[in-house]
Design brief:
The complex is a heterotrimer of chains A (350), B (297) and C (318). Chain A is an alpha+beta fold and 350 residues long. Chain A is 25% helix and 35% strand. Chain C is mainly α and 318 residues long. Helix content of chain C is 69%, strand content 0%. The chains are: A alpha+beta (350), B mainly alpha (297), C mainly alpha (318). At the A-C interface, helix 3 of A face loops of C.
């Protein structure tokens, strides 16, 4: 096991700059998730850690050893790819043992390691099958088994769940997390799905356009997003943003006023973006008036799309709301959970 | 159109007979022309076969015999071919040349296709294009200078001349075909193997080649067939009777004088076609896929 | 992490031998992989191609080096009626045979694309003419074209009484030319049909269904859906077909050897006759070299056809 350091890594394909100086530290045993919209450079970064892409500039170190010029097979890593990349002409057993046969491991060792991995993943009865005879979830497990067998210093996952249906995805998410808690191997996991990131990670790295937007524990990112991008990216449905100005210690938009969150609030007349998560609105007769546009009951909560002063907001209420489109609903935000951003830089003010 | 019929339509994998399509119409527009095609395409083979088994009396007398049938079949023609000519010898030579040329071509093509499609280097596209262009050079403009090359190498009238020159039209074809097959193997498999600790040659041997086996078979049987059927080089580079290949020998050795021995000629044509035809029947699907694969690339 | 019963084994991370390192270096591997193919093609294809062009400017004989004679061979050929006739016949043979092959081949492909019983067997059988050695099927045609015992004449004269006398298939120039074209078309139809069938099968049935619901007749469906979508593959198959028909040798050599009175010589057979049995390598090479401009035209056509194909499919072609 080992820590992974990524220091000011840059990469360009032709004239297109993919990564603009990315630095991330992943501690020993940590589960780090690289998350961001497609094209943000997260997969390229992972492939560079694996040694499948050259590091343009900067340094990548695994366990204190700079691996920029080390071949993939000598980096002591294992990788699970999006489509699993199981060797179709080999049985599950041979798939898992492949790296060991390449390393000339004795038969007994191969046997033992494979059966241990199969036991961990519940693959015992499938060892003599071929990949085409397996279901999506089973293939996923074989791919992980192939990684476990090697006892690597680092596990790399490249969007491993994106080919599975929604239900299986939730299940495998749990299994991967469970596996990490048992093995405690340093893991770097790439996904575009913020829910995967939130549920699995010890540390989330949010990336966009080849840059790191924020690094932190899942709930830190949720509670204190560093900028508008992270605020909008993490959480579903995403945070509501209202555009307005600071006036008399309150947030003013149109002819309505909302209380500012605690902390430095900005000077009078300054343009700001006010952020409230859907679940942080509550029904309040003293609140601002909103016109209901759409009501979506999900059973456990009720999502209401409404308009306040000409701006659209989504609210998620725990209680059942019987409002109809066109009616007026009075709501107010939970002041302790509101956010204030500088619209010109996108950075968090409070 | 009722919903049920529409459902059926959208589920149909290929064209199918619809309820409103009349049987009579299909008979005239489809089955009749198809039968004519089959008749014309297959008749020469039938004629070849029937002639090979006819005694001379029936062969040249249509008045007293039905020419489309043999009333007293004979093996004379075939016996004559097998025992009075060097046919077995030609067969062995052709087989040897075809196997040799196929082996060399397949070996070279696998490596070349792997380099072009999998090792990806600057200009690999141009190399691929060059190979494609080589495929477009027909043997009939090459055989004269090749004859002089072969002569100066001291290979004239030697089967080696054929084993070494056949790859010039086999390699481009096989390489092109294999590039297509390699393309269909996901890159991730090789990347995974790379992380698993395999060297590039190990990847070729343990991942890429096993997965390209259908392609290898296609290329192999195709190369074999093309070598078997080759004519112009074999005609130009081989002069002594016992070293000739089957197609050349039948045309040059069996056609003598002004009175053609049609019976034994047809027996020769039949026996010369039979090995490829049998070979073909085992691998029909591979032939079709390599033919269409090469065109589609 | 390791249980008590674990057999201890650590991968030996020995430095790879220099040879292994060499074989893992990409440039070396690329070079070594391309070497056999390129070596063979260079010695037996590229060099002879150049040598052929050189020979065409010399008066080389078989077994005797020649001297540079400039354009003399070509000047001589331009006044040689046999050569000019061969050029004309080669073009005629290619054009007529190609048109027939494609018309019939496309028809056959459309028939095979219908829902048929034992389809794969029919498809397999149809390829037979293309799979068997050309020379051997040509011999069968030679026998079918026999002046006295032709089965075709027999049927037409003695059975159907359409004609009054047997046809002299190979005895007169025009009969011989058409007989050769028929044999070539017979041999070429399977290739065209099976290739085009592959193209037809890539056309989604839903397009036909949409067209049918839009009220298109079967001819309109053929014109507006099948033909445009088949065009790309048609162009490629056409190039190959033109190229190989133009450079044909075997059929003519086996059936007529250029006769009667040199009327059915193709450029390839004439080059062979002059170059190998006639021993005039230089002159033979000049005839072969004269084919190159025509072949280049066909190749350029192929290049642009493939380019067009990329464009038609939005550049996302595989």
């Amino acid at each position: 096991m080992a820590e992974v350091s990524i220091r000011d890594v840059r990469k360009a394909f032709g004239t297109t700059q993919i990564l603009h100086g990315v630095s991330v530290e992943v501690a020993d045993g940590e589960f780090a998730v690289l998350v961001g919209p497609s094209g943000c450079g997260k997969s390229t970064l992972l492939r560079m850690i694996a040694g499948l892409e050259n590091v343009g500039r900067g340094e990548i170190a695994i366990g204190g050893r700079v691996v920029n010029n080390v071949a993939p097979k000598e980096r002591d890593i294992a990788m699970v790819l999006q489509n699993y990349a199981l060797y179709p002409h080999m049985t599950v057993r041979d798939n898992m043992a492949f790296s060991l046969t390449l390393a000339n491991a004795p038969k007994a060792v191969q046997e033992q390691k494979v059966s241990r991995a199969a036991e961990i993943l519940g693959l015992g009865s499938l060892l003599d099958r071929y990949p085409r005879q397996l279901s999506g979830g089973q293939r996923q497990r074989v791919a992980m088994g192939r990684a476990i067998v090697r006892d690597p210093q680092v596990f790399l996952f490249d969007e491993p769940l994106s080919n599975l249906d929604a239900k299986l995805r939730v299940q495998m998410r749990g299994e991967i997390k469970d596996l990490h808690q048992r093995l405690r191997t340093t893991t770097i996991y790439v996904t575009h799905d913020q829910i995967e990131a939130m549920t699995m990670a010890d540390k989330i790295v949010v990336m966009q356009g080849g840059r790191v937007e924020q690094i932190g524990a899942p709930l830190d990112l949720y509670d204190r997003p560093a900028n508008l991008f992270v605020a909008g990216f993490i959480g579903s449905p995403s945070m509501n943003f209202l555009k307005g100005t600071v006036q008399n210690g309150a947030f003013r938009f149109g002819d309505m006023m909302l209380p500012l969150p605690p902390g430095p609030g900005g000077s009078d007349g300054m343009a700001v973006t006010y952020g409230v998560r859907p679940e942080h609105w509550r029904l309040d007769d003293a609140g601002v008036a909103s016109i209901v546009r759409l009501v979506e009951p999900t059973g456990s909560e009720t999502q209401v799309v409404a308009e306040i002063g000409g701006q659209r907001v989504i609210c998620a209420f725990r209680e059942r709301v019987s409002a109809r489109p066109g009616e007026t609903l009075h709501i107010s935000p939970d002041v302790m959970h509101t956010h204030l951003f500088d619209p010109s830089s996108g950075m968090r003010m409070a | 159109m009722s919903d049920a019929v529409r459902d059926q339509l959208s589920e149909a994998e290929g064209p199918q007979t619809m309820a409103w399509d009349s049987k009579a119409r299909r008979l005239i527009t489809i089955y009749l022309p198809l039968a004519c095609f089959l008749l014309i395409l297959l008749f020469p083979f039938y004629w070849m076969t029937i002639t090979a088994f006819k005694p001379n009396s029936e062969l040249l007398d249509y008045k007293n015999n039905n020419p489309f049938w043999v009333s007293s079949p004979t093996l004379d023609n075939i016996r004559k071919l097998l025992f009075d000519t060097q046919y077995p010898r030609w067969l062995v030579t052709t087989m040897g040349v075809a196997f040799g040329a196929t082996f060399i071509s397949l070996f070279s093509s696998v490596l070349a296709a792997y380099a072009i499609q999998r090792l990806r280097f600057k200009g690999s596209k141009w190399v691929g294009l060059g190979i494609y262009l080589a495929y477009l050079v027909p043997p009939s403009i090459l055989f004269i200078p090749l004859a002089s090359v072969v002569y100066s190498m001291g290979l004239f009238d030697s089967p080696w001349a054929l084993v070494l020159t056949y790859p010039t039209f086999l390699i481009p074809f096989c390489t092109w075909l294999l590039i297509g097959y390699f393309k269909s193997i996901p890159y991730e498999l090789e990347e995974c193997a790379l992380i698993d600790g395999a060297s590039r040659l190990q990847i070729l041997r343990r991942i890429t080649l096993p997965l390209a086996v259908p392609g290898l078979i296609s290329a192999g049987i195709f190369a074999f067939t093309l070598s078997w059927n080759e004519f112009i080089y074999a005609l130009a580079f081989i002069s002594s009777s016992e070293k000739k290949t089957v197609p050349v020998a039948i045309l040059t050795e069996l056609v003598q004088g002004d009175v053609y021995q049609w019976g034994s000629l047809m027996a020769g044509a039949l026996l010369g076609s039979l090995p490829v035809a049998i070979f073909y029947s085992f691998f029909v699907e591979y032939y079709v896929s390599s033919l269409t694969g090469a065109v589609k690339e | 992490m390791s249980g008590a019963e674990t057999i201890s084994w650590t991968p030996v991370r020995k430095a790879p031998s220099p040879l292994a390192r060499l074989f893992d270096s990409k440039p070396f591997l690329i070079a070594i992989c391309l070497l056999p193919a390129f070596g063979l093609l260079a010695v037996f294809l590229t060099y002879p191609l150049g040598l052929g062009i050189y020979l065409s400017f010399t008066d080389t004989k078989l077994g005797r080096p020649g001297v540079w004679v400039g354009l003399e061979n070509f000047q001589y050929l331009l006044e040689d009626r046999v050569f000019l006739n061969a050029v004309w016949f080669t073009v005629f043979y290619t054009a007529v045979a190609t048109v027939l092959k494609f018309a019939l081949g496309l028809w056959l492909a459309l028939l095979l694309n219908e829902n048929l019983p034992i389809k794969s067997l029919i498809r397999a059988v149809i390829l037979l003419p293309w799979i068997t050695p050309t020379v051997l099927s040509a011999i069968a045609f030679w026998w079918i074209y026999d002046p006295q015992f032709s089965i075709v004449s027999y049927v037409l004269v003695d059975k159907l009484h359409i004609l009054s006398s047997y046809i002299d298939f190979l005895g007169t120039p025009w009969h011989a030319r058409w007989s050769l074209i028929v044999a070539n078309v017979w041999r070429g139809i399977p290739f065209v049909a099976i290739s085009l069938l592959a193209g037809l099968q890539t056309i989604s049935p839903s397009l036909y269904e949409a067209a049918m619901l839009d009220g298109a007749s079967s001819w309109q469906r053929f014109r507006k859906v099948t033909v445009p979508l088949l065009m790309p593959i048609l162009a490629v198959v056409l190039t190959f077909s033109v190229l190989f028909t133009f450079a044909d040798f075997q059929l003519v050599y086996a059936i007529t050897r250029g006769g009667p009175i040199n009327s059915t010589h193709l450029m390839a057979t004439l080059a062979f006759q002059r170059g190998i049995p006639g021993a005039a390598l230089g002159e033979g090479a000049a005839i072969a070299v004269s084919m190159i401009p025509f072949l280049i035209l066909a190749t350029l056509f192929s290049y642009f056809a493939i380019g067009q194909r990329k464009w038609q499919q939005g550049g996302s072609d595989e």
